[in-house]
């Protein structure tokens, strides 16, 4: 049990990191999409520009979630303490 | 499960180990160079199909650079356009069976981001002179010097991790779903990967444009300085 305690804690930490790290970007993406829908409903002729900017913005927000994924993979595969 | 952070060498070229991403990178470079060479040999005023596609790409990239920088796009066209086309080709190289995108490995992304980092400094010094470029670090006041220096490093790092994380996570998720669910199931995820790859190539090129634009400063339209810098993440 104590031999692989570090590995158990690492896996827990990786799962927690991805789980918690997904919350913020999810809320942020929801707000961004809601605002874009609102804008398109008000000004349908600007839909092209809005959705292009939306995609870039979403990718930016999504990067935060990707960062936590990278951290989780570092913890799992490149852990200095295992 | 395969470790996504390490790579095995394919073969040895003398004492130098050569890995799969290096081979794919050189093939992409050769294909892009050959296509560019072949389409620009016989440029005519009434363009054929290939020349029309090429002109469309160049004018689109030019318009994007001019939009972002408020400057003449000519000095930056070669670098930004090549970065965009290379990252796009690299991200989409997974369309060929058996090929893994080289951008799914952190070394390729680090090389690309360091090119952008060096280009930022080079263009900044060329446009403002050594003293003028160093003086931009002390804007708006000298208190900001440490923060501005740190920003140079962190934004390069975030450029690396953004591209690496997005492409690698796509490859990783597809391999997990393939091992869990089997053949044909990961196809929707792979289609999503193509979208992600295109968006990430666009973002990489836009961020490179923004960084270089911030280094050289804006000349044509001073009012555009008030726009928010999209690199503040």
Question: Can you characterise this structure?
Answer:
- Chain A starts with a helix and ends in a 5-residue tail after the last helix.
- Chain A is mostly helical.
- Chain A has one domain: F1FO ATP Synthase.
- In chain A, 84% of the residues lie in helices and 0% in strands.
- In chain A, helix 1 (5-42) packs antiparallel against helix 2 (47-77).
- Chain A contains 2 helices and no strands.
- Chain B is mainly α and 233 residues long.
- Chain B contains 6 helices and 2 strands.
- Chain B is globular.
- Chain B starts with 8 loop residues before the first strand and ends in a 17-residue tail after the last helix.
- The model of chain B is unreliable at 221-233 (pLDDT under 50).
- The A-B interface holds A 55-56, 59-60, 62-63, 66-67, 69-70, 73-74, 77-78 and B 3-6, 158, 161-162, 164-166, 168-169, 172, 196, 199-200, 202-203, 206, 230, 233.
Secondary-structure map:
The complex is a heterodimer of chains A (82) and B (233).
Chain A: H1 5-42, H2 47-77
Helix pairs in contact in A: 1-2
Chain B: E1 9-13, E2 16-19, H1 20-40, H2 49-69, H3 74-92, H4 106-135, H5 145-181, H6 187-216
Antiparallel strand pairs in B: 1-2
Helix pairs in contact in B: 1-3, 2-3, 2-6, 3-6, 4-5, 4-6, 5-6
